[in-house]
């Protein structure tokens, strides 16, 4: 080893050997560097290829959905349509529901005739009924096409639609009471009978409407129904299965002091039914009514009683003392901040009663209210109450009252017929409401009323407190009227059912839907009290551009 080392020191490498060694070292380093570089290059090419393949697939999918696979057609809603029925009379029922599932509201109504419309060749004899008989029909909101039509009873006493779980847990339907006395559940979408049950309500009875849906008390997986029948000074309570229509238990009986109506008040975890006559209010919890009808106690959480309310109800007579004066005309429930409150409309005043302590939140002098109140929004997101009161022969006053304070926000005097339709309201995108009112406006200095008032439809929006738009002038008898958004947040329309009523001689019955904006564009602008600040055309254009909004 020593000899080799010394030899290496004595004979160092020549320059040629040094170059060969350096070239060899560089070659080795280059091979080491080329191997990772080639791997990265191949990986980069694969990534590029994957990117272009993905892009190509995306373009194929977009092309297929855009040009090859057809998109579902959106139903085109006609601005106005009419349906006419000859030799018929109309019932005062009008329901608006989505019958055919196209996300456009449809119309359900009832008429009496010997045969159905021309689109459905059905007669009373098909159901074993004498002619004429009562028909229930569903009409498309888009174009007025009849969706279904069915003869239901010799005479129709009452109809209510939009009831969930009627006949099954996923079903929705209409419940009708016909004569001879029978309860019939119709499928909302097809008109087919889900169930029919004969009932014995006694003689000279009156149905207290609407029918109320209650929790499932017979444990069949479907919510049930409670029906109140008034006969003299007695109110009979019937509980029926929502699945089969069969009566649950026997009829309970409540004692009242005259002709009664009722409202349902929903508290935190309990429900109370308030039956009212001209002089008294009676309160029954749902638990009380269930026990009276079935003779059994229930432990369902949804049938609990409110301890505070039970302290204010007489345990023997069930009388509830409310701070109001005068004869009671109407009771209504008004949404509050945490629970519903009670609006008492008497012959002398209106009072809003707190459901927490039964004390008056406010009172307002209002005499002879002619119909149940309507809710709407005069101020953004502040609930208002529309009241119509009689102030003289063929003369009424319309008021919008703030629900929080009872302050009158707006009022209007109109000539009005006794049979004039009630008002309607539609929510707008500015968190207020458009109000539709029937009557005849007479400006200052034009007070002569030698003839019967005309039936004119007016539009009012709080953005113009001094403006009424006269939309239409109807000379026909109006049996029913309503306004709604036929599509969510768009297509505001109103519906008119006109013709002879069910107690009159048969004639031509017509059903009409009209888009509200069409009438706004062609309307007549009426200035109420203030000097006009904008042109009539500007007012029309602004209200025409107004957007409607679905609440809830």
Strand content: 35-45%
User: Which oligomeric form is depicted?
Assistant: single chain
Radius of gyration in whole Å, from Cα? 36 Å
Structural class: alpha+beta
Shape: globular
Number of strand elements: 31
Task: Describe the overall structure.
17% of the residues lie in helices and 42% in strands. The chain is an alpha+beta fold and 552 residues long. Among the domains are: 50 residues; 140 residues, no CATH class.
List the helices and strands and how they pair.
Elements: H1 2-10, H2 15-68, E1 80-97, E2 106-113, E3 133-139, E4 146-153, E5 155-164, E6 172-179, E7 182-187, E8 193-198, E9 206-214, E10 224-231, E11 234-240, E12 252-255, E13 261-266, E14 271-276, E15 281-285, H3 286-294, H4 307-312, E16 328-335, E17 340-346, E18 349-353, E19 360-365, E20 374-379, E21 382-392, E22 395-402, E23 408-415, E24 424-427, E25 433-439, E26 455-460, E27 467-474, E28 478-487, E29 490-498, E30 507-515, H5 516-521, E31 524-527, H6 536-544
Antiparallel strand pairs: 1-2, 1-30, 2-3, 3-4, 5-6, 6-7, 7-8, 9-10, 10-11, 11-12, 13-14, 14-15, 16-17, 17-18, 18-19, 20-21, 21-22, 22-23, 24-25, 25-26, 26-27, 27-31, 28-29, 29-30
């Amino acid at each position: 080893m020593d000899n080799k080392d010394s030899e290496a020191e004595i004979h160092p490498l020549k320059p040629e050997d040094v170059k060969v060694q350096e070239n060899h070292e560089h070659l080795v380093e280059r091979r080491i560097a080329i191997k990772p570089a080639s791997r990265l290059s191949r990986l980069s090419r694969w990534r590029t290829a994957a990117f272009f393949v993905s892009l190509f697939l995306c373009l194929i999918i977009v092309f297929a959905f855009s040009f090859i696979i057809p998109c579902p057609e959106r139903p085109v809603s006609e601005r106005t349509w009419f349906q006419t029925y000859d030799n018929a009379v109309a019932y005062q029922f009008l329901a608006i529901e989505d019958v055919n599932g196209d996300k456009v509201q449809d119309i359900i109504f009832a008429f009496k005739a010997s045969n159905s419309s021309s689109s459905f060749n059905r007669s009373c004899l098909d159901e074993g009924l004498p002619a004429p008989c009562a028909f229930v029909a569903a009409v498309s909101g888009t174009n007025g096409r009849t969706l279904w039509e069915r003869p239901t009873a010799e005479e129709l006493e009452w109809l209510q639609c939009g009831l969930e779980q009627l006949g099954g847990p996923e079903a929705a339907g209409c419940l009708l009471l016909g004569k001879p006395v029978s309860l019939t559940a119709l499928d909302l979408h097809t008109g087919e009978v889900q169930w029919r049950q004969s009932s014995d309500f006694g003689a000279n009875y009156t149905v207290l409407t609407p029918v109320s849906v209650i929790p499932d008390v017979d444990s069949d997986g479907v919510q049930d129904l409670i029906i109140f029948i008034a006969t003299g000074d007695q109110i009979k309570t019937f509980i029926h299965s929502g699945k089969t229509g069969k009566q649950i238990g026997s009829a309970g009986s409540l004692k009242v002091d005259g002709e009664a109506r009722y409202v349902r008040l929903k508290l935190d975890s309990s429900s109370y039914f308030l039956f009212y006559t001209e002089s008294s209010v009676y309160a029954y919890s749902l638990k009380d009514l269930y026990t009276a009808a079935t003779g059994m106690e229930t432990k369902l959480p949804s049938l609990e009683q409110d301890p505070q309310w039970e302290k204010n109800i007489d345990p023997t007579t069930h009388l509830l003392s409310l701070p109001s004066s005068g004869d009671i005309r109407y009771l209504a429930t008004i949404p509050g901040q945490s629970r519903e409150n009670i609006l008492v409309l008497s012959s002398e005043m209106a009072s809003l009663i707190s459901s927490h302590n039964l004390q008056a939140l406010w009172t307002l002098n209002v005499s002879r209210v002619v119909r149940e109140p309507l809710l709407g929004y005069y101020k953004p997101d502040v609930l208002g109450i529309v009241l119509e009161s009689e102030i003289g022969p063929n003369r009424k006053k319309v008021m919008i009252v703030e629900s929080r304070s009872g302050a009158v926000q707006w009022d209007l005097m109109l000539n009005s017929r006794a049979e004039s339709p009630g008002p309607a309201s539609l929510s707008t995108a500015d968190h207020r409401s458009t109000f539709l009112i029937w009557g005849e406006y007479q400006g200052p200095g034009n007070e002569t009323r030698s003839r019967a008032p005309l039936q004119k439809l007016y539009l009012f929006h709080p953005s113009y407190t001094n403006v009424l738009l006269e939309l239409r002038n109807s000379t026909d008898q109006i049996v029913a009227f309503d306004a709604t958004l036929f599509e969510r947040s768009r297509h505001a329309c109103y519906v008119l059912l006109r013709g002879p009523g069910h107690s009159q001689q048969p004639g031509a019955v017509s059903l009409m839907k009209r888009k509200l904006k069409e009438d706004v564009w062609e309307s007549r602008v009426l200035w109420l009290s203030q000097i006009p600040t904008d042109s009539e055309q500007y007012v029309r254009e602004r209200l025409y551009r107004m957007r409607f909004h679905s609440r809830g």
